[in-house]
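WP5 quarterly update. Target: ATP-dependent DNA helicase UvrD2. Source organism: Streptomyces collinus. Length: 731 aa.
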Amino acid sequence: MTPATHSPLFPQAPDSADAVLEGLDPEQREVATALHGPVCVLAGAGTGKTRAITHRIAYGVRAGILQPSTVLAVTFTNRAAGEMRGRLRQLGAQGVQARTFHSAALRQLQYFWPKAVGGSMPRLVDRKIQLVAEAAATRNLRLDRGELRDTTAEIEWAKVTQTVPADYPYAAAKAGRETPRDPAEIAHLYAAYENLKRDRAVIDFEDVLLLTVAVLQDRHDIADQVRAQYQHFVVDEYQDVSPLQQRLLELWLGERDSLCVVGDASQTIYSFTGATPDHLLDFRVRHPGATVVKLVRDYRSTPQVVRLANGLLTQASGRAADHRLELVSQRPPGPDPVFTEYTDEPAEAEGAARRIRELVDAGTPAAEIAILFRTNSQSETYEQALADAGVPYQLRGAERFFDRPEVRKAGIALRGAARFGGNDSLLDDVVDLPSQVRAVLSGEGWTTEPPAGSGAARERWESLAALVNLAHDFAAAHPGATLGDLVAELDERANAQHAPTVQGVTLASLHAAKGLEWDVVFLVGVADGMMPITYAKTDEQIEEERRLLYVGVTRARERLHLSWSLSRAPGGRPNRRPSPFLDGLRPGSATTAGRTGPAAAGGIERGTLAPAAAAPRRRQRTPARCRVCGRSLTDAGEMKLMRCADCPSDMDEGLYERLRAWRAVQARRSGQPDFCVFTDRTLMAIAEAQPDTTAELSRIPGVLSRKLQRHGADILAICAGQDIARDDEED
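Structure tokens (predicted):
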């Protein structure tokens, strides 16, 4: 146990603000006491970042500098938010809001909806996949379960990157997305999905952020009310922020600079969801006066584990690598990482299970051991090996292999073929058991070549391929076995692996392991083609695979085992090689070419500004005055119209109605409420001003730069008398 990450939380709240700072290292203390201006904390794995930021909030509260109700701490998972709230309570900082981006936005949207829109807020759908399926049906598209999951993920990515359906094909191509269908088809399905939601008056989780952004952008009075409530912000895991979340954060913050962000670019592993480390890496560009604190004292892992983690990043390239942190272990020495090469995958799984059995028998709790792999399809071999060794286990972030829908469906098909195979034309020309299984599973979606890219379709194929491989191995071990014998074997394996387990060895993918740690970690399948995975083609994708392995290595506190196999099945051709990421790090391997300059050391960097900019201050708005009577305006709606509500309007009613008709078409296309395109007040202001040029249009409150770029040409055409709304409807 170490002071930074494993010491017991205070049994009682510290009796003073200074007591909150006790036990912090110099860099953590700097974070805790940097309560003014923008602060960026670059925190390596295991360096106590959560401890630092919770003590920062608690110190500010206990010192009377921060009012608890004015602090909003946001992170990405309910588990992380709950942990933060618990720590703050133990430190005597009750009343601070610690939430995910979505839960914080949802509370605000629920509160302000009656005022901003009127009526009750639309119902929030928990799972959008059923709506996507129904939207596909309206387009006469048939999607299997894997395609549905992948298409749903594409819609989520489009929304968090603020991409509307019409722009999806271009945005997907620019981002190098592997799309499950033709991008044009997905764009049409995306639009149909948004229309279906609108017709049913429901919203999804991405809409919560989009609508909150829309309300805060268009209603200055509501934005001011939110900013009066929350005046200090802390953002954890800032390297995982999406463009949409960043926009929401900017609207929460306004023109203030009381912001503390925490992150590590070397742990960016979710770019496929829209996350980007650019906001973290560009923080000093946006906030030149920021204080930057680097946390590099690793309290989690032994020097041997830390040395391997640092070594992985010395060979990295790209922007994230340029900002890597050189970790320094604070723990006593431990055993060296163990590198093991096996002849085949079953031998690798049996070897890991055997070592785990020895560790458990020697007193290591099973709950302090983890097996981490690249894809969920790898779990079945390890589930079986642990079951055979009598070691309890639990899966994290995935279904058990035999519980997966595609595996259960395949089992039904195999069972049916075993009973009635004589009447199955698929089996007419096949004799041996593996050929029979391949023939049956070809009807379930298995093909000789995997689908391109990642995602649900690839995972589904991997599960079916695992069954095909199992059939090969079973036939080799049991010559003359029938399809019925294989089905019995599958049933026996399923029953053995369904035994109830509680405290057991954790089986998890590397993505699901983020944020967790164990005394002993087995990183398995660390072979070229799996790390990096075969469909990682670009330099950026390969570097993210390296970071994924780095995350896996840094999950280990004391013991780390890395293994790979030379072939898939016993007796197979030994043509695999260890992951190139291990070159120069495992015994007997050559060092690959080095990377760019040295890593960043720990410490503090003070922001430096020119004297005139040394004290950021809120920009003063020019007082708005009514263009009719000249009275000062304070109401947001009146400011948008630039006249008092009681003063006569010179609005062109016909133009206003044409603008409303055009807006309805745009809203239907984007699947958003009308006011997300333009509010009624903005349309009234346009109908009163009747702008002729882009410059005149841009001066109307509510016509922001993004909307001006997207809709400006249409608005000016309508003001000039062209019937854009009718043309759109005919198209």
